[in-house]
Specification:
11 strands; seven-stranded mixed β-sheet; alpha/beta
């Protein structure tokens, strides 16, 4: 893969800045790195990859229950943000397949039925398995400390993050269409690089949604008038108001 394909060039600087050596673009597969053993663990160690304020609740979750049997689907990473919303993350080691957004939405739909007590049990099991014993009561306290307003209602509206090395036009078109209709779905792209000595570097960047560039653009026109805060009405927010706002969860709120 050529660096032109990524739109990004990584330079290794040495000799006090006199030497700048281009680091070659590679793939996780070519570098011998795996999805679960490596990519997933990077996300666990650095949950900011999924967005600010994300706490990892569990990985490889497969505790789904349905009448007549249990689905074998495994959710890659389950997180919780500070607003009390679940973060459902689907990871792909290479280019995401054309149906990845539907797979992620399926997991979000199933995860939306989590209750706070069930989530606490799942987090306790995850933490204990990782070497930090935790009771469901302690897990519930940890979740509450991270997201003060977490409730069954806030958990019912997960947001989705797909992490992959790249996305096809079909995926991009589908994600934009879904986002326009209120589905909170983000795409994070990573790019591995490898030096001649074998050292591997990986960058992560949000591909979608893009930052609001319009606010940073300069254009001719009349200055925008601002209303003094003293003239604006004030209304106290209740907990119920905030929970309701969390359920809306569109790009404005």
């Amino acid at each position: 893969m050529d660096s032109a394909d990524t739109g990004e060039v990584l330079l290794a600087i040495s000799d006090g800045g006199d030497t700048a050596e281009a680091v070659s673009v590679t793939t996780l597969q070519a570098a011998g790195l795996m999805e679960r053993a490596h990519l997933q663990e990077w996300v666990v160690a650095h949950p900011g990859i999924l967005g600010s304020g994300v706490k990892i609740v569990a990985v490889e979750y497969a505790g789904w229950v349905v009448a007549g049997g249990a689905p074998k689907d495994r959710l890659d990473v389950l997180g919780l943000d500070t607003d009390g919303r679940l973060v459902v993350a689907e990871l792909k080691r290479g280019i995401a397949p054309d149906t990845v957004e539907m797979q992620a939405i399926k997991y979000a739909a199933m995860a939306s039925r989590f209750k706070v007590d069930t989530l606490a049990q799942v987090h306790a099991d995850y933490s204990t398995a990782r070497g930090t014993p935790m009771t469901p009561e302690q897990a519930a306290e940890a979740l509450q400390a991270h997201a003060e307003l977490v409730s069954d209602d806030t958990l019912a509206n997960p947001r989705v993050v797909v992490v992959a090395q790249g996305f096809t036009p079909i995926v991009m078109s589908s994600v934009v269409w879904l986002a326009d209709r209120g589905v909170d779905l983000s795409l994070v792209r990573f790019q591995p690089y490898q030096q001649a000595n074998g050292q591997v570097f990986v960058t992560f960047s949000r591909l979608y949604p893009l930052p609001d560039l319009e606010k940073s653009m300069i254009a001719p026109g009349a200055p925008t008038s601002e209303v003094s805060s003293e003239k604006l009405p004030t209304t106290e927010w209740s907990v119920a108001d905030l929970v309701g706002l969390g359920r809306v969860a569109n790009t404005v709120t």
